[in-house]
Amino acid sequence: MANRTMVFESLPVRQAVLKQIIPAIASQMIVLLYSLADTYFVGMLNVPAQTAAITIVYPSFVMLTAISNLFGIGGASLIARKLGKKETLDATEVSSIAFWLGLLSAILFSLLFLLLARPILALCGATEATYDFAYDYAKWVIVIGGVPTIMNTLLANLVRSEGAAAQASFGVSLGGILNILLDPLFILPRFMGMGVVGAGVATALSNAMSAIYFLLYLYHRQDTVLNITPVYLKQTGRHLKAILSIGFPSALQYALTVVAIAAQSAFVAKYATEATAALGIVKKLDQLPLYFSIGVANGLLPLLAYNHSAGNESRRRAAFRFGTSISVGFALLCVLIYEGLAPQLASLFISDPQTIGYGSSFLRRMVLAMPFMAFCYPMIIQFQAMGKVREALITSILRKGVLDVPLLFLMDGLFPLYGCMWVQPIVDFISLIVACGFYFHLQKGAKNEVR
After folding, report:
1. Cα 119–62–111 angle (5° rounding)?
2. How far apart are CA 151 and CA 212, in angstroms?
3. 188 alpha-carbon distance from chain centroid
4. Residue-wise pLDDT tens digits, 256-306
């Protein structure tokens, strides 16, 4: 355990940041690749309705991450802060509480979706042409695969919270690589030929394998504060409020992302099935800088939380600056590539000319949000690491849900269909301004306290 906390305490800042974020980025890239693989191999069938089905189910899939983050990010931040204060028993109790409440929430969500699948998918843009494909895909990804998907991400965050970034990355990457290998086997006609349903089966199986890996890791690992023994649930009353208050902004951001994505999909669905399929392809492509930033932020979280709790604010600030510069730099590179190669990138996923045309136009607009997001997302994580619930909550709400829907009506009215693609750049820019305002205010307050 001492070797792991050395990363937080004494390793040079840049080396500590890289040691934390590189495995986290790597695992996020694997997750992105298997997400892209679903769209890529289904796109090879050249049936826009099946590609559109993945787009329609995506908001519900994002809700799985919201639930996971409620207990995963909340628990990880609290564990790291407890370790910073040398309160190891409390850290152990938090790990058990986060695990069991996450598992219960996962089961409840999967059952709820099963009961309400038709209205949920309809709200997300399912039409007569796409509903059956969307439901068959969702049955595997959400109903059957929902629990392992949530537990995979939750456990990765908990493992990362005590400095075991490489082990967390391996567990997530294991499932991602397996999914990439299984996708063509289940989807393509030359093999099992299950189409979009096969993509769902591959996702469910791969996430189940990742979850099993993490459970085996916790069972066999001796030098860890993490423990999922139910006996610690009797301490739920002591820690639940802190877990939920820290995790809620991340969970809410993803939950509101569902609203924003569903609203955007619904707006686009009224134009053409090809436009809906194109939106799904673009959503996959713009996940590259997004997932990179999430990897940076997830890697930074325990490092920031530990040093804030330990009172080493200069180390926290230095780690944040270095990590965020990497995130923003990569996003700017993506903007250049996506703007220049939009048609070629869209054509990687489908050969339908109309879908490619929509996709390249959408991509060139939506990717402009990425540099703002690449700064804003780590900023929200930093607020959570510092226990600043109000600042994290407000910034999260602004990023997704509150501004998106009104702007969709406005921009779609001014610029039919294509105006919807300008919404995210506008929202992320506003959110970043607000987040920076909060941060400078906190820094100013901290300096006044020192004086």
Report:
1. 50
2. 9
3. 28
4. 777 777 788 778 878 887 888 888 788 878 888 888 998 899 889 888 988
